[in-house]
Amino acid sequence: MSTVAVTDATFDAEVKNSKVPVVVDFWAEWCGPCKQIGPALEELAAEYGDKIKIAKVDVDSNPNSAAAMGVRGIPALFIFKDGQVVSNMAGAKPKAALQSWIDDSI
Questions:
Q1: Is 76 a catalytic residue?
Q2: Exposed (0-12), middle (13-18) or buried (19+): which is 103, by Cβ within 10 Å?
Q3: Is the pTM of this model over 0.70?
Q4: Which domain holds residue 13?
Q5: Which of the residues 6, 24, 34, 54 is marked catalytic?
């Protein structure tokens, strides 16, 4: 599975109502650190398959979801399980750190 683009309109359906845990990456095209973690998130999406979903929300196109989550800086990552946030992290991290964070949270 690859990452899923999520919009303000699809946020509840794709994230809050998901049957599997969801990692949400709030990002923007102009954000250097966001671009750094993008490939790692794609790899993790493929490795986890349908155990989890990795969703990407472009904050420029979808400001309401970011505002609702209190996102002040990007990249901002949240893990949702059963519709609730169980963990969050800010800033770019190496793939191993992202994987460890996901494993500890799901």
A1: no
A2: exposed
A3: yes
A4: 4-104
A5: 34
